[in-house]
Amino acid sequence: MAEAKLRHAASKDISAIEALLSAQHLPVYSLQEFLDTFWVLEDGGRIVGSTGLELYDDCSLLRSVVVEESYRRQHLGQRLVLNAIEEARRRGVRRIYLFTMEATDYFSRFGFRRCALEDFELAVRQSFQYRGISSIPELASRITPMLLDLAEDAEQG
Asked: Average pLDDT in the 70-97 region?
């Protein structure tokens, strides 16, 4: 297995990204809308991972971090997350939010911390994911919202 190549996603990748997301029971909405801030990992012409940012003013929502099962344990998810965080910094994003059901410890390694739905900036509350989760209490109770404060990191660094 050669090292997977990280690149910006293209329209031709959407069906492959959707297949990866669906296999992990992750939402597949709005890929085209946010495609300019989506990345894929490609190995031998096959999409084996993806992630994306939804940008809202100076905040963003990290979403769709997924790596095909047979490619896990190779730090590919880490490459995707670090790339997204760096892109957010380049674009002047101050806070990155995300939702997770099972990966709280994983995202904590990157500096994300648990937060409440009420902590989300108003701009990010317009996202499809936030609106869906916040309107279904049973779902909200199973989801962990998280926040990475890049402005705080910059002040400390």
From this structure: 92
- Compute the average pLDDT of residues 115-121: 95
β-pair partners for 49: 41, 67
* Nearest alpha-carbon partner for 43 in 71, 64, 72: 71
Per the structure, the complete domain to which residue 82 belongs is given by 5-156
In whole angstroms, how far apart are CA 78 and each of 6, 82, 140?
12, 6, 26
Residue 10's pLDDT band (cuts 50, 70, 90): very high
pLDDT at residue number 1 = 47
Question: Which residues in 104-124 are b (16+ Cβ under 10 Å) and which e?
Answer: eeebeebebeebeeeebbeeb
What CATH number did the domain enclosing 10 receive? 3.40.630.30
Asked if 9 and 83 count as a contact pair (C-beta separation under 8 A), the reply is no
